[in-house]
């Protein structure tokens, strides 16, 4: 790795984050939880001005941005509840046991501790929920890690205003100086990721950018974990029985999911596998024709989408169901309507290099599957890892072929949906938003849901430590009142007795 000389500003930011790491990690969970709630309150109190700026910079609709800001605030409060509860610390206490089945057992106490400063690379398509105060920032703060936010150039004014609100709320809640800071600029982001004081990275964006940053994190003299959410096709599989039962509902949901926010969502259904002779074309064309033009986020995305759309439309065997359009203005901003195409399974396989990749915008591909096709065997030959996979089946439909498909989809996606559409990502404790490569760089993690906290924690065990030197969560007195899983002395000789 090439040595670089950091600017005084970056040096100060890195030093401040490092200085804040230990006192922030030592904060009482309830105090940290109250700070997260304070950030949520402050964001909602400033919703009108933030949404106005967001609309101007991203082209996203007011309703979408207000909903996203609300989601961001709810997410912060959800993490606050998890932190206050304390179960995320995963405290385990093995009491000293002279009669342990394998010989005398020492007192061993284990829990999870914060990694240290985290650099979070904000996303363009979610200027609230995956940006300044979004899920990666919220979960790192919840874990007790200072955050250095690398702002996205697609919404600089919104980044600055949101960051000021977050920093002020954290300071007013009594959190240490340096707990939340912002850097801008591509090179600055790279340099801060390379700094040895940074202990983890998080990213939401394209596969090339994610690979580049993950490579930097892995190539450091001391590698650090890097949690990148990259690309996803989000395949959908529709059975004939489901079409017979509710074809109109499936058409309406599909077009809404593809066109929402101009298709600029990581969970947009990119490929929908339907029985040949499905009869959906006219319904899809009519529904797509009613969708008003929507601006894409920025000229770079508009140019990329226009190029990708032309490549798909020109691929052999592809026919337009709803051709849609792209209109560029003098500054390169693009307004789009949905483009939905159809292709046979054989033509998709033959033209996979031209067709089978993510289109970031309102484009989706209907893949027409001949009767008797073994979809479970097909999936591994066509699809890599995805954030989601969806199955539309009829009520009560559970044929062996469908069961086999569900099993194989579980191996290729982080979230498997039955009915509905993947663009709805519920902010709930059990949510999984991650998946096998290239959906994410770490398929055992999630960026939504309370399990996201564990990305920024690592386990430490204390053996034979006196009570006075144990951290609060591991003390027998348990002053923080967190859940403790205790293995009492004398239990080991009976392990397995009740399972015979």
From TrEMBL:
Residues 9-373 form the Aldehyde dehydrogenase domain. Keywords: Oxidoreductase. CDD domains: ALDH_KGSADH. InterPro entries: Ald_DH/histidinol_DH (IPR016161), Ald_DH_C (IPR016163), Ald_DH_N (IPR016162), Aldehyde_DH_dom (IPR015590), Aldehyde_DH_Superfamily (IPR050740), ALDH_KGSADH (IPR044151). Pfam families: Aldedh. GO terms for molecular function: oxidoreductase activity, acting on the aldehyde or oxo group of donors, NAD or NADP as acceptor. This is Aldehyde dehydrogenase. It comes from Agromyces aureus.
